[in-house]
Amino acid sequence: MREHDLDAVLALNNAAGRSILALDASQLRYFYEHAEYFRVAEIDGHLAGFLIALREGGNYESPNYRWFAEHYPQFVYIDRIVIANTYRRHGLGRIFYCDVHSYAEVRVPLLTCEVFLEPRDDVVLLFHGTYGYQEVGQQRMGEHGPKVSLLARDLPSYAYVRDTWLEHGGLPDLPWLAERERPFLHDSTPRRLAGERRP
């Protein structure tokens, strides 16, 4: 994700329909500055889709993120994935999910997300089921908001990575294991390095 992509990402997000909550520019800027995982897909120079995911320990006020924070000490939370209509059925959703899985399994024991149950979309539920996600709860987003299914996928490789690297100095210094480079936050806190344990 690059800063000059922000306008295109915002437009794509807000054209996605009822299944994706709308964003304003400041909300998207929050993701740009704080999301540990924020990747875009390009096809022939055009933005084809994006996925945003966050680690535990953030101050993100999403009720679904907060639910996972209250129930699990470590996780990567998929906040949203959007594929442009023109590029659907190209397998981009599967590519994104494989990529975020690869990112998460060397950092946390759990990958989480939610899917809307109102309106219910059996194709989306089936998609997540085929990737090993299990329902761990349900809730309504606000007093009158839609009901969601809260999903989690165990990442069994994490225990090996934790015991071999994370507890012994961190992940190897390899490009594919590097953390996303994010702008410094307003309080001048530097970004977390790959494998660095949180206080």
Give structural notes.
The chain has one domain: Aminopeptidase (3-Layer(aba) Sandwich), CATH 3.40.630. Helix content is about 30%, strand content about 25%. It contains six helices and six strands. Strands 1-2-3-4-6-5 form a six-stranded mixed beta sheet, sandwiched between helices. A hairpin with a 2-residue loop joins strand 1 and strand 2. Helix 1 crosses helix 2. The longest helix is centred in the middle third of the chain and has 13 residues. The radius of gyration is 17 Å and the shape is globular.
Topology:
Blueprint: H1 6-14, H2 25-34, E1 37-43, E2 46-55, H3 63-71, E3 76-83, H4 92-104, E4 110-116, H5 122-130, E5 134-140, E6 147-154, H6 157-164
Parallel strand pairs: 3-4
Antiparallel strand pairs: 1-2, 2-3, 4-6, 5-6
Helix pairs in contact: 1-2
Number of distinct beta strands: 6
Strand content: 15-25%
What overall form do the CA principal axes indicate? globular
Q: Provide the CATH top-level class.
A: Alpha Beta
Q: Mind summarizing the main beta sheet?
A: 6 strands, mixed
List segments where confidence is low: pLDDT < 50 over at least 5 consecutive residues. 186-199
CATH fold group: Aminopeptidase
Oligomer: single chain
Q: Helix share of residues?
A: 25-40%
Order of helices and strands: HHEEHEHEHEEH
User: What is the terminal-to-terminal distance?
Assistant: 27 Å
Strand order within the widest beta sheet: 1-2-3-4-6-5
CATH superfamily: Gcn5-related N-acetyltransferase (GNAT)
Number of structural units classed as domains: 1
Number of helices: 6
Class from helix and strand fractions: alpha+beta
